[in-house]
C-alpha cells in the first residue's frame, strides 16, 4: 500500500507528453494498442533486502511496482536478474518478448545477435539513464524504439559525485580503514588531505548531471571549468560560475579534479587513455559516475599505481557486475563502489514512474516525451551519432 502510494505520487511528478502521434516504422512500435504484450524486465535481485523498504521498487522483487497494473490489463510481465549467456532466463524469452525493460545498474547487454533473435521486440526501455548496454545501431537498423527516463536520477548522481570529490580531496578512505583496523596514524592521512576551496574542478560533459554538479560546487569557492560539445547558455554559465573550455586537453591540464559526465558513445569510448592522463597534473583526482568504458581500464590502473592519478572514484565499471578479478578492485588510491549513485530510493520511484508512463503511452499508441528517445524511427539521438 505504502509502495503504491509512493509510486502514484512519483507518477504525478513525471511530465507526460500526451501528444497523439503514432509511428509506422518497421516494427509497428506505437501502432499496437489493445493487444496483450509480453514484457520482460531485467533488474538486480534484492534477496534479504527486498522486504526492508516498501519503496524499494528498482529490484527484481519490487519489479518497478507495475506488476498489478500490467497484469490487470492482460499483459504478461516476467522479471529476472538472470541476463548473461545462452542459458539465461532472458535468453529464454528473447524470441517472443515485445518489450524489454533493462537498467544500467545490472545491465542486460542487448547485442545485435539478441536483437536479431528478438523477432517480436518493439520497444527497449531503460529504467534509468544511459542505454549504452544496448547496441543502438542494431536497434535502429531493426526499427526498434529505445527510450530512457531522462532526468530521473540526475540529482542522485550529482550529489554522489560531490560526495566522491570530497572523499578523494580529504583522503577519507585511509582514515576509515584505520578506524576499523584499530589504528591511529594522523600523518598517514594528513600528508595529502586538502581543502576543496580554491581548487580547479573540470567536468567533461555539462548536461543535466554536469550542470547540477556545478551548481552544487559553487558555494565551495572553487575554480569551475567545463568541456562539452555544446556551450551552455550565458545565464547558466553565470549562475554556475563555470568557464567553458572548448579544448578538452587544455582543460584537463588545469584541473585538480576531473569529473566525467558524458554518455558512452562511439566518440567518448576510451577517451581517457594514457595520453590524455599524461596531459593531466600529477596528483589529479578523477571521479567517474558516467560509464566505466569512458576510461582505458589499464591506463587508470597504471596511473593510480604510479601516483599520477592520486585518487579515482566512481560507481561504473565495464562489464557489470564487475568480475572479482577486475583490476580496479585492486589498484591503489581508489574509492570505487558498485553502480549505486543513480538508484537511490528517490531515483527508483522516479524511473519506475517514468517507465510506467512510457508503457502507458505505448499501449495507447502515443509518443513519449521527446527527450526520452535514444533511438526513434531508425535514428539515434544526436549525441549518440
Ligand atoms: N552512475 C549512475 O547511476 C548514472 C545515472 C545516470 C546517468 N549516468 C551517466 O551519466 C551520463 C550523463 O547523464 P546526463 O543526464 O547528464 O546526460 P545529458 O544528456 O543531459 O548530458 C550529457 C552531456 O554530455 C555532452 N556530450 C556528449 N557527447 C560528448 C562529447 N563527445 N564531447 C563532449 N561532450 C559530450 C552532451 O552535449 C551533454 O551536454 C549518462 O549518459 C549516463 O551514462 C550514470
UniProtKB/TrEMBL annotation:
Residues 163-341 form the D-isomer specific 2-hydroxyacid dehydrogenase NAD-binding domain. Belongs to the D-isomer specific 2-hydroxyacid dehydrogenase family. FDH subfamily. Residues 70-366 form the D-isomer specific 2-hydroxyacid dehydrogenase catalytic domain. GO terms for biological process: formate catabolic process. Homodimer. One of its GO terms (molecular function) is formate dehydrogenase (NAD+) activity. It comes from the Eukaryota. CDD domains: FDH. GO terms for cellular component: chloroplast; mitochondrion. It catalyses: formate + NAD(+) = CO2 + NADH. This is Formate dehydrogenase, mitochondrial. NAD(+) binds at residues 208-209, 228, 263-267, 289, 315, 339-342. Pfam families: 2-Hacid_dh, 2-Hacid_dh_C. InterPro entries: D-isomer_2_OHA_DH_cat_dom, D-isomer_DH_CS, D-isomer_DH_CS1, D-isomer_DH_NAD-bd, FDH_NAD-dep, NAD(P)-bd_dom_sf. Keywords: Mitochondrion, NAD, Oxidoreductase. Catalyzes the NAD(+)-dependent oxidation of formate to carbon dioxide. Involved in the cell stress response. Its EC number is 1.17.1.9.
Amino acid at each position: 500500500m505504502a509502495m503504491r502510494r509512493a509510486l502514484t505520487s512519483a507518477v504525478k511528478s513525471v511530465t507526460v507528453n500526451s501528444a497523439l502521434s503514432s509511428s509506422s516504422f518497421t516494427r509497428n512500435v506505437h501502432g499496437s494498442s489493445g493487444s496483450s504484450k509480453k514484457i520482460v524486465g531485467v533488474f538486480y535481485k534484492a534477496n534479504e533486502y527486498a522486504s526492508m523498504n516498501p519503496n524499494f521498487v528498482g529490484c527484481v522483487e519490487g519489479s518497478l511496482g507495475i506488476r498489478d497494473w500490467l497484469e490487470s490489463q492482460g499483459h504478461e510481465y516476467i522479471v529476472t536478474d538472470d541476463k548473461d549467456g545462452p542459458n539465461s532466463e532472458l535468453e529464454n524469452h528473447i524470441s517472443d518478448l515485445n518489450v524489454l525493460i533493462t537498467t544500467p545498474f545490472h545491465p542486460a547487454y542487448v547485442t545485435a545477435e539478441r536483437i536479431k533473435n528478438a523477432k517480436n521486440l518493439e520497444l527497449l526501455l531503460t529504467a534509468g539513464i544511459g542505454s549504452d548496454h544496448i547496441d543502438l545501431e542494431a536497434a535502429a537498423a531493426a526499427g526498434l524504439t529505445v527510450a530512457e527516463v531522462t532526468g530521473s536520477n540526475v540529482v542522485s548522481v550529482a550529489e554522489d559525485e560531490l560526495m566522491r570529490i570530497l572523499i578523494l580531496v580529504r583522503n577519507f578512505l585511509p582514515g576509515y580503514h584505520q578506524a576499523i583496523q584499530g589504528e591511529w596514524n594522523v600523518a598517514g592521512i594528513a600528508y595529502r588531505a586538502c581543502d576543496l576551496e580554491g581548487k580547479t574542478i573540470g567536468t567533461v560533459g555539462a548536461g543535466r548531471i554536469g550542470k547540477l554538479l556545478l551548481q552544487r560546487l559553487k558555494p565551495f569557492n572553487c575554480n569551475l571549468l567545463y568541456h562539452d560539445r555544446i556551450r551552455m547558455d550565458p545565464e547558466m554559465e553565470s549562475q554556475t560560475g563555470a568557464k567553458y573550455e572548448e579544448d578538452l586537453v587544455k582543460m584537463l591540464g588545469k584541473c585538480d579534479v576531473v569529473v566525467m559526465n558524458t554518455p558512452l558513445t562511439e566518440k567518448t569510448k576510451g577517451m581517457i587513455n594514457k595520453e590524455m592522463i599524461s596531459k593531466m597534473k600529477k596528483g589529479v583526482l578523477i571521479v567517474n559516475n558516467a560509464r566505466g568504458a569512458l576510461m582505458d581500464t589499464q591506463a587508470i590502473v597504471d596511473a593510480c599505481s604510479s601516483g599520477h592519478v592520486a585518487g579515482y572514484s566512481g560507481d561504473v565499471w565495464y562489464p557489470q557486475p564487475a568480475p572479482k578479478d577486475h583490476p580496479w578492485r585492486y589498484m591503489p588510491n581508489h574509492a570505487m563502489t558498485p553502480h549505486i549513485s543513480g538508484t537511490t530510493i528517490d531515483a527508483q520511484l522516479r524511473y519506475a514512474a517514468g517507465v510506467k508512463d512510457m508503457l502507458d503511452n505505448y499501449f495507447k499508441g502515443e509518443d513519449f516525451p521527446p527527450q526520452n528517445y535514444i533511438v526513434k524511427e531508425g535514428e539515434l539521438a544526436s549525441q549518440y551519432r
